[in-house]
């Protein structure tokens, strides 16, 4: 296999960020099915054809560049958050393109490329790969709406002209997704490469405490059933109770709180808040759920609240394929001998869905300051190139 | 003085609720300067004229029915919350009308009536009486906007046709406001009359914790600067620290919380929340402020937050006039001998503003279930009539 070309790779990566350029730093505004997203996918399809790959686009708008016969699939997504960084998803797609190009020039091994659609969740979470993996029928997905009420069916009609048909997953021997870490671990330790061991599982649900809305001047403290106080008490008690169950990798978050009526002179009668927890161990997710529900019930009983739960989103942890992990680890030892580590992925990725179809693995490079989903997201170009070389070396060694 | 007529009083009270009737229970939708509010004020002016009072309307839309010469002023407000009850304000206005009517029929003492405008705060808090009391120049008030951006200047133009000019407060010897309690005290004890001792003072401000917005999957717990966690910690710590300073009548409330970006998968980077506290003792309000600021600073320091404060609204406690209070107490002993009490008002009222101009007092009747600012607000009609009789008796005794 001919070596990859870092300059060509970086040039392509910078060209991709011209589609939907935010004009703020290197940021992009390229949400799924937007004009900028579709233009980027057309450009990408051109690049795939130039590389000698056969372009196929499935009904969801996932863009594939296919090698002949059985091949290893590399890629990620090219849609962005409403205010996104230039590397989130784009890095994995362009690295895949460069490795496929180098591989074709060298006469093998066969490498195919994919850019999944709507990983960033305009219509859900990793919508394009969810449908491709068979978990969600496209007829059902079509009814999903974005936050202004546009259906996925209407949104994807905008790229109907590119669609060629279904793409058979049976032709791929495995999937490797390179991605920015989107967290602080590598940046904090000064390391360059993370070989992912697991993508953590997630549980996410809304919890509602319903107390009594009252006047904040005339209602004595001892007669209040204040829904915000219930959330605060739940939060404190939960932290105590989780302490003996969690590991340093476990995370839990109350990221959304909605009080009713949310006015400074009114004792809040209702609080709806999100409870999300993530861990690489499926059993621990279950133990945490029991503690969360018990704590909410205890607080509701103590404070005269009615308690209800929204539907629970549940995604099981996904273990990366051992053989693919080993290939990435060996390659990391070559190109980043003292500066790589094994680590879990705290973020969801398309690889979670693809794991239903084939062996998968993931490779991380650092995020400066650990930040992502913002125009400021960035990675040292030297680290991007090390990531590219590790990916190429792993692909070579698997041949 | 001829006795008041309970049936005529109740009939007027029910007729007033036909203006802006919500169609839900006895509720009304009659916010300041709305069509329903202006129609109600025109009806009220008619009723005042029928009673032999001279109607004057000041530029804010406060409607006065004036007796000749020096007189005692009775009244409250007839605007409502966006979803209001039939008695909040209306009770005090119609009771005043009935007492003035009975008093005129009896040849004295002279009683004037007022319905203040925008007590419910479409443009602030007790806006009409604030301007009348001289605290806020009308030119400044004119720039205030409601929550959809309409200015007070534009809103009050709708009732310009009713305006007669300024109304001189010098003609009034005192002000008595009858009102529903809007809290649970009388309803809980089964009492019928509350003679108000003080209107509590209020402090209200927004507090902002600014931490670091982060991905809820990739950011380890120990590296988070989670703004919601800061609010929760502040809330718990504040409760501990206030314990030795407050009385059973002191209240404090976090009624508004706004997280940014308020998404379940993102560690909140910013939290803006309201902190409001009320007490009848001005010194205690100051001591509480010191504790609140110290607690916020401690939490900010512990958790790596930037801390900032919005402007603080401050209203000092108002003591009711001893002479007027005594008259109400004596009258309560006549009409509710075992079922009255002295109590503070935890809610703000127009009387707070009027106290800048003359001696003031207030009289409460129970709120069923302690609820107000909702269509369900109500009071037993027998209690309304007892309140009316106490008011009339106090007025008679003051002559």
CATH architecture of the largest domain in chain A: 3-Layer(aba) Sandwich
Helicity of chain A, as a percent range? 25-40%
How many structural domains in the coordinates of chain A?
2
At the first level of CATH, what is the class of the largest domain in chain A? Alpha Beta
Alpha-carbon distance between the two ends of chain A: 10 Å
Strand content of chain A: 15-25%
C-alpha Rg of chain A (nearest Å): 23 Å
The SS-based structural class of chain A is: alpha+beta
Quote the average pLDDT of chain A. Answer: 96
Work out the largest interface and the residue count of each chain.
Answer: A-B, 60 and 60 residues
Give the overall form of chain A.
globular
Number of helices of chain A: 12
The total of beta strands of chain A comes to 17
Element-by-element helix/strand order of chain A: HHEEEHEHHHEHEEEHEEEEHEEEHEHEH
CATH topology of the largest domain in chain A: Aminopeptidase
**Low-pLDDT regions of chain A:** none
How would you describe what is shown here?
The structure is a homodimer of 399-residue chains. With 399 residues, the first copy, chain A, is of the alpha+beta class. Chain A folds into two domains: 6-200 and 317-398, Aminopeptidase (3-Layer(aba) Sandwich); 201-315, Alpha-Beta Plaits (2-Layer Sandwich), CATH 3.30.70. The first copy, chain A, is 35% helix and 22% strand. The first copy, chain A, has helices at residues 6-16, 35-50, 90-105, 127-132, 138-141, 152-157, 185-189, 227-242, 282-303, 322-335, 350-354, 381-398, and strands at residues 54-57, 63-66, 71-77, 111-116, 172-180, 193-199, 201-210, 214-215, 251-253, 257-260, 266-267, 270-279, 306-309, 313-315, 318-319, 340-345, 360-365. In chain A, the strands form three sheets. In chain A, strands 1, 2, 3, 4, 5, 6, 15, 16 and 17 form a nine-stranded mixed β-sheet that branches. In chain A, strands 7, 9, 10, 12, 13 and 14 form a six-stranded antiparallel β-sheet that branches. In chain A, strands 8-11 form a two-stranded antiparallel sheet. In chain A, helix 1 (6-16) runs antiparallel to helix 3, helix 3 packs across helix 12 (381-398) and helix 8 runs antiparallel to helix 9. Chain A is globular and about 80 Å long. Chain A starts with 5 loop residues before the first helix and ends with a helix.
């Amino acid at each position: 296999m001919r070596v990859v070309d870092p300059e060509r790779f970086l040039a392509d990566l910078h060209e991709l960020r011209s589609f939907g350029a935010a004009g703020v730093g290197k940021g992009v505004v390229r949400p799924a099915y937007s004009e900028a997203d579709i233009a980027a996918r057309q450009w990408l399809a051109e690049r795939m054809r130039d590389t000698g790959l056969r372009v196929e686009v499935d009904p969801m708008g996932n863009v594939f560049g296919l090698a002949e016969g059985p091949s290893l699939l590399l890629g990620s997504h090219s849609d962005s958050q409403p205010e996104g960084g230039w590397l989130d998803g784009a890095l994995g797609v362009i690295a895949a393109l460069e490795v496929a190009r180098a591989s074709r020039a060298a006469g093998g091994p066969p490498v195919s490329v994919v850019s999944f659609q709507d990983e960033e969740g305009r219509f859900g979470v990793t919508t394009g790969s969810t449908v491709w993996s068979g978990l969600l029928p496209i007829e059902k997905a079509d009814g999903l709406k974005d936050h202004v009420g546009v259906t996925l069916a209407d949104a994807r009609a905008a790229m109907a002209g590119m669609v060629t048909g279904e793409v058979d997953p049976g032709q791929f021997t495995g999937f490797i997704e390179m991605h920015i870490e989107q967290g602080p671990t590598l940046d904090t330790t000064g390391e360059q490469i993370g070989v992912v061991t697991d993508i953590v599982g997630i549980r996410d649900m809304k919890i509602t405490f319903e107390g009594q809305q009252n006047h904040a001047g005339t209602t004595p403290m001892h007669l209040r059933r204040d829904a915000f106080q219930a959330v605060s008490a739940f939060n404190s008690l939960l932290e105590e109770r989780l302490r003996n169950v969690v590991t340093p990798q476990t995370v839990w978050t109350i990221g959304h709180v909605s009080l009713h009526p949310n006015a400074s002179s009114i004792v809040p009668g209702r609080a709806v808040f999100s409870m999300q927890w993530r861990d690489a161990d499926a059993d621990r997710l279950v133990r945490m759920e029991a503690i969360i529900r018990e704590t909410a019930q205890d607080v509701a009983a103590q404070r005269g609240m009615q308690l209800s739960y929204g539907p629970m989103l549940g995604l099981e942890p996904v273990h990366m394929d051992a053989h693919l992990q080993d290939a990435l680890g060996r390659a990391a030892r070559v190109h980043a001998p003292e500066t790589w580590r094994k680590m879990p992925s705290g973020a969801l990725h398309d690889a979670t869905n693809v794991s239903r179809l084939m062996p998968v693995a993931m490779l991380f490079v650092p995020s400066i300051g650990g930040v992502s989903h913002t125009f400021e997201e960035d990675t040292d170009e030297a680290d991007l190139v090390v990531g590219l070389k590790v990916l190429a070396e792993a692909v070579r060694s698997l041949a």
